[in-house]
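Format notes (please read before filing issues)

Several people have asked whether sequences and structure tokens are stored in separate files. They are not. Every record keeps both together, in the order shown below: the sequence lines, then the token lines. Line labels are part of the format and must not be stripped during preprocessing.
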Amino acid sequence: MKKAFVTGGTGFVGANLIRLLLQENYSVRALVRSGSRLSNLQDLDVELVEGDLNHPDLWRQMVGCQYLFHVAAHYSLWQKDRNVLYQSNVLGTRNVLAAAQKVGIERTVYTSSVAAIGVKEDGIADETYQSPVEKLIGHYKKSKYWAEQEAVKAVQAGQDVVIVNPSSPIGPWDIKPTPTGDIILRFLRRQMPAYIETGLNFVHVEDVARGHLLALQKGRRGDRYILGHQNLTLKQLLDQLAEITALPAPQRAIPAWVPLTIAFVDEEILTKFGKTPTVPVDGVRMATQKMFYDASKAVKELGLPQTPIPTALHDAVNWFVKYGYVAGRPNKVMMSGASHHH
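Then the structure lines:
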């Protein structure tokens, strides 16, 4: 029996990955933080172990597993979370990889992010591109860069690690939700009067999960693979959502300096008076860049599937409606017929 150890299984990518592994007859042991919400893993045949990424005895939890998927990461764009980002993402990754090495895990797939690659000023970045770390906006991206360097160091020391860099996943089981899920929810709840001119690479979360398994099976040791699909401006994404849901898309673009000013006042000034900020400065600074990526290496070398983005949006919308994220309007939101689905 093939046995995989998964960190971050209660998260968006992790929950989809675990479902895929079970479907493909892997047995799964998942690391969960004590007291974490397990709604994403309910009723699944998974062995849960409680623990912490930084625990010195973490290796004991991995005994008997052949493979490791280190998916867990802390996400925040708030300045005040700088320390916990480095603690979880960089030191946590170092400890997880050391534990895997100690118990003889045969191969690890490490989940980095396109955030670690950075934005290419004049266009589209692939795996060969690396933004200088000082140009990465915010401590989340910097922490993901330094965490990926831990994986690179492990490879140099002889460990079998493959690195995957998902872009912005869309689809079911986004319980938090992630920033992309949040865009979809705001759209569904009519809380998006205008949009910022930005662009992202989007991908169905099930393709990201499949990309992890393909990386385990076919990835080259030490290589990085962007798990993405389509580059779209935020406006194009919202227009696709409008088509799926028959709800109107916001028509007005707001210049980035407006939210940037709001965010600055919010995070730099009002927090000093004990107000909880609502818009992180780094979030807006990031939004002014078009974050476009090229996933053709993963498509060619791994066979990464490229499910159409409207299908991903459709699956996300249906999941949010089904699980009660959108109050009282399921009939309007549900798309008539899903004949084009998978």
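For reference, the curators noted about this record: The chain has 13 helices and 13 strands. Residues 82-103 form the longest helix (22 residues).
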